[in-house]
Amino acid sequence: MTTTSDQSVSDAVTAGAHATEIARSGASNLRGAAGGGADPARVSAVVGAALEGIRAAIRDHKVTYEEFDAFKQWLIAVSDTGEWPLFLDVYLEFEVEKVAAATQQGSIGTILGPFWLDGQAQLDSPATLPMRDDEPGTPMILAGQVIATDGTPLAGATVDIWHTDADGWYSGFASKPPAGNLRGVVRCDDQGRYEIHTRKPAPYTIPLDGPTGQMTQAAGWSPWRPAHIHLLVSAPGHRTLTSQLFFTGDPYLGNDVASADKPELTLDPQPTGNGDQVRSDRDFVLEPEA
Ligand code: MBD
Ligand code: FE
C-alpha cells in the first residue's frame, strides 16, 4: 500500500496507486473473472467501434495537433497517477453494469467503483462498523433482510459495506480516516436479517488534483457523487449483488459524475427518537447462481 505519511503525495496519487494495485490483480472486479477472450471477431467489433468513436470525435471537431499532444500527455498522467481504475469506474463502468443488469434478476444494483477493499472487519449482526471514538456525522442504522427471488430468507448471507466518513473521505484511500474505518463484512442472522450501525456519509468529489478531476473540470462537469453507501450482498449459491444506496434530498442526485445513482436506490432515513439517530430499512433479493 502507498504511504500516506508523505504530505507531498497528493490524495489523487495516494488513492490512484492503491486502486491500481488492487485492480491489477483483478480482485476488484467481482462480477467478471478472466476478462475478454481472444475471439478476433469480437476484438475487432468492440475495439474497432471504440477507436472509431475517437476518430469520429477528431473528424467532427477538427482536433488539432496541439490537442492530440495534450491527449497523449493526459493519458500518460492517468497512468502515472494510477487513476485508470478511477477514470474507468467513473466514466465507463455504468454502461458495463447496464449490460450485466439486463440478464439479472433480484434487486437492482449499480457499479462497484474503485474503493472496495478485501479483508475488512468480520462482524455479526447487529453490528457497529469500525469507527473513531469521535466519528463525526449523523448516527445511522441500516437494517433489513436478504432473501432469494422465491422469497426464502437466506441464512449465511453477508453484507459487505463501505462508505465515506461525514467529510467525504474513504479509509484506505485518503490519509485522514484510519485503516478499516466505516468498512465491514456483516454476517446476517439465520433469517438473513442484518442491522448495521454507522454514520451517514457525505457527498464525494473525485480528486481534483489528478487527471480525471482536471479533465472533468476542464469540461465544466460536476466532479461530485451524491452521498452513497456501497454494498456487496452475498449468500451461498446466489449471485452477489453489487449495489449502492443514496439519500433523498441529496443535491447531487441525478447529476452523479459516475452516472451510478438510480431512483430505486434512494433511502429516506427517519429519526429513531434516539438523539439525532436515523434509520432506513432495505431488503435485498438475490437470484440463484446459474
Ligand atoms: C467513488 O466513491 C465511487 O463510488 C465511484 C463509483 C467512482 C469514484 C468514486
Ligand atoms: Fe464510492
UniProtKB/TrEMBL annotation:
Residues 258-290 are annotated as: Disordered. It comes from Actinomycetospora chibensis. Pfam families: Dioxygenase_C (PF00775), Dioxygenase_N (PF04444). Belongs to the intradiol ring-cleavage dioxygenase family. The keyword Nuclease does not apply. This is Dioxygenase. GO terms for molecular function: dioxygenase activity. The lineage of its organism: Bacteria, Bacillati, Actinomycetota, Actinomycetes, Pseudonocardiales. Transmembrane segments: none annotated.
